[in-house]
Amino acid sequence: MCTLTILPRSSLGPSAVDFRVAFSRDEQRDRTPGTPPRFEDHEGTRSILPRDPQGGGTWIAVTEHGLVFCLLNVNPRAHDPGHEGGLSRGRLIPGLLPARSLAEAGSRLPALAEAVRRPFRLVVSDGLGVLEATGAAGGVTPALGPLEAPFMRCSSGLGDHVVEPLREEAFNRMLPAGARVGAEAQDAYHRLRFEDRDDCSVDMSRADALTVSWTVIEVGEAEVRLSHHPAPPRESPTPESFRLPVARGSRRRSASVVDG
User: Fold this and answer.
1) Which residues are CB-neighbours of 81 under 8 A, at least 6 positions away?
2) Do residues 104 and 96 touch, judged by C-beta distance below 8 A?
3) Residue 114 to residue 14: CA distance in whole angstroms
4) What gap in Å lies between CA 165 and CA 161, rounded to an integer?
């Protein structure tokens, strides 16, 4: 239950930011809150990420190499008992953080995904390309493509097929391809509430679940910035901000195709 958007440089207009990621996290009301973001070291790679104390993993992270990692659940129409149990999906991202490129992240993913049973969608971007991988029951299918226009993915416990059309229509209207929409429009999208359909809103709320936080990551040539808002957008929370220098010699590489 989440909404992810990515704006490439071409959509941001004049800016020192190479690309901008926003992620709204929706969760059950009785789930233990995530811990605040912190700096971590993974095989010599510095990262910033919050943690889910229940599963031990995370739903979003950024590294000193300018890679942003995001994880969404996948909620199919029909229940499959083969998708029960296994390693928490949130443990995928920490295992990928040492990667220095999208291709390396893709090559590390299959071994990690073998222990994950529940359906997931992993999205990794370096601002030039997007590695998108869907998996379940120990298998995973990755694909690598260019980031040339605003990008959106979402999920919902109501069923992805229920919520996605509404959020996608609003996304295409508010953040159209080929336009310089800017950060303000991206933030406005993540604050969006549909009249009479709060359960499907981007900033959603229903009896058993709600948007619990949202995180913005901006990646530039010299540093990455993460701003974590520890409450729903409708509450206008004050963000916690973090900065991390980009590692010297880091270069974003998206040209290689990752085979599934």
Assistant:
1) none
2) no
3) 43
4) 7
| Token output for 226 | 């993460």
Neighbours of 211 (CB within 10 A): 26
Are 98 and 44 within 8 A, CB to CB? Answer: yes
**How is residue 172 written in tokens?**
């295409």
Local confidence pLDDT in tens for the 260 residues of the chain: 799 999 999 999 888 899 999 999 999 999 999 999 999 999 999 999 999 998 899 999 999 999 999 999 999 888 788 888 899 999 999 999 999 999 999 999 999 999 999 999 999 999 999 999 999 999 999 999 999 999 999 999 999 999 999 999 999 999 999 999 999 999 999 999 999 999 999 999 999 999 999 999 999 999 999 999 999 999 999 999 999 999 987 755 444 434 43
Q: Which residues contact 220 (CB under 8 A, 6 or more apart)?
A: 16, 17, 18, 246
Question: d(Cα 24, Cα 32) in Å, to the nearest integer?
Answer: 17
At a CB cut-off of 8 Å and minimum separation 6, what does 42 contact? 63, 94, 97, 98
Q: Tokens at residue 15, please?
A: 């800016």
String of DSSP letters for 140-154: EEEEEEE--S-EEEE
Q: What phi and psi, each to the nearest 5 degrees, are found at residue 237?
A: -70, 150
Compute how many other C-beta atoms are within 10 angstroms of the C-beta atom of residue 97.
24
Question: How buried is residue 98: exposed, middle or buried, by Cβ count under 10 Å (0-12/13-18/19+)?
Answer: middle
CA–CA gap between residue 20 and residue 216 (Å, rounded): 7
CA distance 260 to 251: 24
103: left (phi over 0), alpha (psi -120 to 50) or beta: alpha
The helix (run of H) or strand (run of E) holding residue 167 is helix 160-174
